[in-house]
Structures are given as C-alpha cells and as structure tokens.
Amino acid sequence: MNKEEKKPSPKFILGENKKIHLVLNDRTIPVRIHPCFPWRDPGRFISVCGIDGEEILLIHATKGLEGTSKQILQQALLETRFTLTIDRIENIKKEVEIRNWTVFVEHQKRTFQTELDEWPQTLSNGSILIRDVAGDFYCVQDPKKLDPKSKKLLGEMVG
Amino acid sequence: MNKLDDLNRSIIKRYTNQPAELPFLLRNRIHDQPILMYGLADLNASLSLQDTWIILDPENLAVISEKNDEVHIERVKRTDIRDVTETVGLSCTVLRFYTESESRPLELRYSQRQRKTMEGIKLAVEGKLPNDPEEPHHADIFYRQSVASAMANAQLAVSGNKLAVIWRLLVYLKPYKRLLVMGSVAAIVLTIMNLLPPYLTGYIIDLVSQTQEVKASISVQKTVWSVIGLLAFVYIVREFCLWMRLRNMSMLGEYVAHDLRQELYNHLQTLSLRFFSRKQTGTIITRVSSDTDRLWDFIAFGIVEVSLSCIMLVGLGVVLVCLDWRLGLIMTVPIPLFLWAFYKHGKNIGRIFIKAFQRWSRLTALLSDTIPGIRIVKVFNQEQREIERFGKRNSNCRTSFNEVHRVWTSFWPRMMFAFHGLTLLVWMVALPRVMGLSDRTLTPGTFIAFLLYMAMFMHPLEVIGQMTRMLNRALSSAYRIFEILDTEPQIKNKPHPVQLKPVKGSIRYDNVSFSYDGVRKVLNQVSFSVSPGEMIGLVGPSGSGKTTLMNLLARFYDVTEGCLFVDGTDIRDVELGGYRKQIGMVLQDPSLFHGTIMDNISYGMQHSNPEQIIEAAKAANAHEFICRLEQGYETIVGERGHTLSGGERQRISIARAVLHNPRILILDEATSNVDTETEQKIQEALTRLIKGRTVLAIAHRLSTLKRATRLLVIKEGTIVEEGTHSELLKMEDGVFRKLYTMQQTLHEQFVA
C-alpha cells in the first residue's frame, strides 16, 4: 500500500446556497473545480481550487470518492464540461470569412458560426469537437451514428 | 450608433435562432419599470436548450420562462441580492443570485453566446455599472451588441447585398471611362471577329469545290482572293482588338486596384487602436495585398471573360441556327445541360477542395510549429516523431488532392465524350445531305463552317459554368475591402478643435473610467493631476490598468466616463495631429522600421540635419555603438536588416524621442528585458531625456522609479496608494512596500 491510498478521500458538501465546499481538516472551503483533461479523461485529474484560483487539491479519480461527494463532484463536472451535442447537421455554408452551420442540438435547430480556419477537431475517443466564434463547443459524440447527409457534410470538414 | 445597432440586429436575425430583442408580449408584462438591461439564458437546469429571459429594472430582477405554454415570472428585489457568482464552464456558465430571503439561489444557465450580456447584468446588479443609462433604448442596444459581437468580429460589416457591392465596385471604374469603353469595344469587336473566320473558310471551300469551269472563271478567282484578303483583314483586326482589350482592361484593373489599395491604406492610418486590436494583422495585410490583387484579376479578366463568353455563346447559337437550323438545334438545345454540368462540377470540386485545404492547413501548421522550434525538437530528440507526424499529414494531403485530381480528370473526358457525341450526331445528320442523298442538301463549306463553330463552343461554356465561383471570390474580396473602408475612425477631431501649441504639460485625470469591451472596467474613477515637468511613476500588478492610462493620454482611446484634461482642455476637444506631435513614447519593445538607423531616429522629424541626429543619438547613449557599425548611421535595420540587440534598439527609440522633443513623455517598461549594464546606459539616456518634460513612466523594476516626483500604485483599475518612493516605503502593509520588498528579496536571492 502506498501513501496515497492511506489518505482519506476528500469530502465535498453542498454548502449554504448550493455552493460546492471542500471539507478539509474540519474546515469547509468554497471551491471551484476544473477537469485537467476534459475530453481525454473527464473523470480523472480534477483540480480543486479555492475562490482565489489557487489549487488546494488534485483528485486523481472520482471513482474513489464516497457517495455524496462523488455525486456533488459529478454534477459540478457535468456543468463545467458541458458541450452542445449535435445530432444532425442540416447545412454548412461557406460565407465571407465564416462558415455558417445549421445543426440540430437535441432535436432543436441551432445555427452557429466558425471561422474559416477553425476546423473540427477529432478527439481521441472518436468524437468530433467544433468551436464557434462565440467560444461555445459543439460535439458530435459518435460521427458514425449520424445520418448519411450529416455524415457527408461533416466528412468534408474533418481531415 | 443606429447604424451599428441595425447591423447587430441583422446579424442576430441572420445568424442565430434567438430574437433580436425582448419579445413585445414579455416586455408588456414587465412594463411598470423602465428596463435597464436584459438577456437570454438559453439552457435550462437539465442543460437542454430552453429560453429564459432575465430582465433588470431599477428595483427588480425578473426571470421569465415558459413552461407548457404558460409564462412563469419570478421577481427578486435587487436590494435583497447579497451575492452573485458566475461559474464558467466550457459551454455552460451558471450565474447564481443569492438573496436574503431565499435559501436556494436563483440560477441561470447559458452558453458562451449569451455570456457578455449576462456579465453586463451581473456587473449592474453588483453596482459596477451605472443604473440610469442615458440612451433610451440602451437595454436593446446592449443586448444586441453583446450577442452579435462575436459574429461581428469574425465576419464582416458589409456582407449581404451582393448587388450593392458589385455596384459599389463599378463606381471605381468611373474615373477610367476611356479605358473601359476602349477595352469593352475592343472585346466586342474581338468576339465578332472570332465568329467570322469559320464562315469565310466555309465560303472559300464552297467556291473551290465548284466544277472546274466555274472555278476557272475570273470572277470566282477574284472572289476567292478577296475573301482570303478579308480573312487576313479579320485576323489583323482580331489581333489588334485582342491587344487593345488586354492592354486597356489590364490597366483599368490595375488603376482600380491601385485606388482601392491607396484608399484602404489611407483609411487604415485614420483608424483607432481598437480596430487593430480587433483584427489580426495578417487579415489586414491580406486585404491590402491579396484582395486588391484578386479584384484586379476580376476586373481585368473576369468581367470581360464572362461577358464575352455570354456574347460568344449567343453569337454561336444564332450563327449555327442561321447556317442550318436543324444542325443548329442539335448543338444549342443541350447548352443548358452543359452549363448545369459545369456548375455542378464546380460545386462538387469545391467541396473536395475544402477537405484538401483543411489537410493542407494542418500540414503548414505543423511546419510553422516545428521549423521555428527546431532547437526544441533537436534537444528533445524528437526528429523521428516529427518526421512521422509530417509524413502522416503529408499522406493525408496527397489523398485529398488526388481525390481532387480524380474528379476533374474524370469530368473532362466525360464532357468531351458528350460533346463528341453531339459532333457525331451532327455528322450523321449532315453527311447524307452533304453527299446529296437527301432532299435538303448541305454544301461542304457550310458543313465545315459548322464544324469550326462547334469547336468554339467549349470555352465559353466552361467560363460561364465557373462564373459563380469567380464572382463569389471577387465579392468576398470586395466585402473585405469595403468593411475596412466603412469602419469609422473612433478617434477623430471635433469640428473646431483646440490647438495646443505648445503643450505646457499639465495633465488631469478627472474621475476617469475606461472599458475596452463596454462591460468590464479596466479603469474605475481614477483621478490625479500632474504638473508640468513632473515625473509620475505608475506601479502595480499586470492588468491593473497602467498601460491603459498611458493609452488614454496618447488618445489612442477615449475615456468611457469622466474627463482627461491636458493644459486645462478636455483631450477630446484638442486637435489630434498637433497634440500627438508633442507626445513621445518609449515602449518596452521598440519598433524599428526597415531603413537606415538615421531614418529610424528621424522618423517623425524628417527634416532633421545630421548634427541633430548625432546629438540625439549621443543623448541616448547610442552614438558609440552606431559608429562601431560598418555603415554607421546608414546601416539598414528593421525587418531583414542588421540585427540589433534589445538594448541597442531601445537606445535608438530613445534617440527618436529625444529628436522629437516632446512636451509629454510616456515610458512604458523602457528598461525591461535588458542586462544591467545596458540598463544603466538606458537609464542615463532617459535621465537626459526626461529633463524639463512631463513624464508618465511604468516600470516593473521599482528601484528605477526612485527619481519620480510621485508614484501612483494602481490595483484593479483604481489608485490605491500615492506618494514619493520613500513615503510609500514607510507605509506599513502598503502594496508598494510589499512589492518592493518582494523584488529586493528576489534580487538578493539571485545575487547570492
């Protein structure tokens, strides 16, 4: 058994007004969480920072957390690493300086724009990530499951 | 402002699925108070897309959502709100309002697109934004501006109306009517001349294929020679017209490109720093160079080629039908099909090109990374890995470009095959008639003329088929150019500006606030005065607003709130050119232009004589090192010129400031990034430079500000401490004292 395993697992509570707090040495500290690898390994290496931005703790895996703490952390992670999931691509139109995408996010139509040299990124798990000019991330979880038209349109953009 | 607001409105309507303003019905339900701000939270608690409006009035914060066709309004008194927090995620930000009365916070979730609006609301709730906007439609304008800003920055202000842009482009041809008329007439005559040789050839063939007696007659021989003479004349006129067309249209294109380039560059010089910070340098350079060049190509060749191809196609159709309407119809009826095929091919290959370019850009990105960073690659022994990475991307490129080649190489044989099919059909229909096997005889001359005309069909078809692509490319360039030309300079002279000559150097910041994005205040109600000849040191952490204070003094930006006075006059009322002549700047990273050292020192004072330049260089401790250079003051520096060290470049920039002899001097980290010996030389030069001038200086090395009359410590956009160097050091728990001690400790540790 190494030293790390002996350490008690960190405890998180939802403090007053739903703020997430870390319980450390009988103190509760309001914290913010940042996944270090939001795409490659979202459930591991979670940086827990104080409100001033200084890291208090690095959680190697959420697996080892006890029930409530795990739930609180996972809920917070869900919001932190949330991306808009594309289930259908209706059109990708090149315009002056931008590409205009018309897609369906959870069956709702949404348009967004990317710069011409901002290409979709293929992640290690095969998902495709697109970042629009406003900074929002759009994700195609499994490109193989797209309908033929969407697949064709996306295929033209992905190298 | 209205024009900008209209533009923002059209951007929202065109590029988003959200309303361009708060819906009328909802507005009516919150009508008891004037609306200060509103925004849209586009995600719900389960992170699905759902619209929730948040409206801020002087007393309340209202949240309006719709559930099962029912409008649900939740109001919170602003005085009840005790805290607001923002948790920023990748595409979901959560804004929480904590109130005195409720244990549960009011939560709003939204995507990045809405973030600027929501941040504005947060700042307003926190009391960091004024509560009584002067603009009556401030809330609408703010909402639209915030939502549209990302698209507006990425795209163009003028895209949309293609016809208007073409018309505007044509206006640039107006001063060169003569060239345009001559070029166009030559082009039309050229097209007609192109139609004549096949006809004349057919005519000659018909004459020479007559019986021996007819051929021997003098009149026929005369006619044949006359037609050959006519053919020679046609060729001469044709080549002359070709020369006229190419010469006039090329020159016309060049004149227009020249005018656009000049107008663009002149306009760029008038634009404020805000514009340059918004646009990447590369895209601005592309607009002045490549885009104007593309327009030259379009005007010189594109417009003419397309117009002539249209004329040629119509002309060919008419001639063929007139020569023989049956054969003519065989050729002309399939024209729309050919045009459609060219158009589809253009679109299809364009799609494949996108992928090829994407792969190409990945390949060049790798080159841009590894070639400048080659030392790192070698140090970490990563050559093989980089070779493999390059190899993979290179192969991807090859695959994509081969796909392009596969498509176009298979397209052309198919098109030619279809065309040859038509030719065979013409032969099959015409041959019995030429051989006299049919009632409707056809002379060999007419048939040969027909075949020659047919050969002329393909080129105009191809040009017209590619017209859309050509037009779109030219329009993109025109859009990009007109966007800059339509950008209004934000800093400009008032109608009757005050001339400050000479500037005495008294400065007063009176409750100055400033924001780059209209939301976050970089400076917040800063007030201080500087007497003529005083040296003020500005101290504080990075991002505290020091450089912004300097930028306001140089009037690169105008204050958002408050006033900045120079010699008692509001800086916005002062004549800009004359004022800037009396301001000098020495920056952390001095810019030297391509040219001699002499040119660089005398930049802004072109008529200085050599004595003055040497004197300035001596004052800047630069003379000695300049003299050591082989070509002395005539050494070429700047881009691709002689490489100077950071300290040498800095001393040249100080010499430039000395020669400029400004009344107000701005020093922004002038001694950063140089070694101790060089710093000493620069300090000596600066001591001479600042004498008798009003100086505002920023320095991270706090010891260099000892000679400042006063020091201002800036933190988060406000002045937190003020006094002399020694006064500030005496302040227990003072920010300056803390920073100073920290630096001294670090210095001692390194020296030790």
Task: Describe this entry's structure for a reader.
The complex is a heterodimer of chains A (159) and B (752). By secondary structure, chain A is α+β, with helices and mostly antiparallel strands. Chain A folds into two domains: 3-80, no CATH class; 84-155, no CATH class. Chain A is 16% helix and 43% strand. Chain A has helices at 3-6, 67-80, 148-155; strands at 11-14, 20-24, 27-35, 44-50, 55-61, 84-94, 98-105, 108-115, 121-122, 128-131, 137-140. In chain A, strands 8-7-6-11-10-9 form a six-stranded mixed β-sheet. A five-stranded antiparallel β-sheet of chain A has the order 1-2-3-4-5, covered by helices on one side. Residues 1-5 of chain A have low confidence and may be disordered. Chain B contains 26 helices and 19 strands. In chain B, a hairpin with a 5-residue loop joins β1 and β2. In chain B, α1 (2-15) packs across α4. Classes of the chains: A alpha+beta (159), B alpha+beta (752). Chain A binds chain B through residues 16-19, 32, 38, 78-84, 94-98, 100, 105-106, 108-113, 115, 117, 119, 132-138, 155-159, and chain B through 15-17, 43, 47-49, 83, 85, 87, 89-92, 94, 96, 98, 103-105, 107, 109, 111-113, 115, 150-151, 153-156, 159, 351-352, 354-355, 358-359, 361-362, 396, 400, 475-476, 479-480.
CATH class of the domain at 175-324 and 442-486 in chain B: Mainly Alpha
- Quaternary assembly: heterodimer
Strands ordered across the widest β-sheet of chain B = 13-16-17-10-18-19
User: What is CATH's topology name of the domain at 175-324 and 442-486 in chain B?
Assistant: ABC transporter transmembrane region fold
Q: What's the Cα radius of gyration of chain A? A: 20 Å
Q: List the total number of helices of chain A.
A: 3
Distance from first to last alpha carbon of chain A: 46 Å
